[in-house]
Request: fold
Amino acid sequence: MTITTALATFAVMVGLLTLTPGLDTALILRTSALGHRRKAVGVVLGIQAGTMVWGILTAAGVTALLTASQLAYDVLRWAGAAYLVWMGARMIVDTLRRRTAEAADAGEVVVAGADSLAAGFRQGALTNLLNPKVGAFYVAVLPNFIPAGAQPLLLGVALAGTHVLLGLVWSSVLVVLARALRAQLARPRARRVLDRLTGTVVAAFGIKLALGDQ
Reply:
């Protein structure tokens, strides 16, 4: 396998994975649809930064600890599960506390919460980095795309960079789509439904992470 073939094959595989709806898709759509432009960009950048970190650590051999050490995997798995369940539950609880009856009657579009790039980046990065299955995926897959004689670290970074690039392109499509629906999804009633749905998806991912196969 040549380096060019490795990059092309890896791009096809992770491209298909990127298109598969999941936790990242839910977070990006929800944040962008509510009019949080800077925070949505932060979420996207945070997720992709986490992906790049996993790729670099895998190429450097560090994340092999996740497959070699049961304790390391379990600690990260439970930390990630707790974070996702907390984040999902907070979204749902916030909808119960929100008082938007007057805005709903007036037909106003409500965009609550801070539109912070840093907050979005932190949320996206933590969601990615606290998911040991991402690291386990890279440990299992990445070495198969590094041909004999290639520099593992350099090619590992290139492969992870390919994944990040595809993720940025698809995330941009999601942001544009969500913003096109912003007028409908940011209304108080629609926002409560969106937050409850996203919160349920996020919490479910956390529960699945806690109880899922290793």
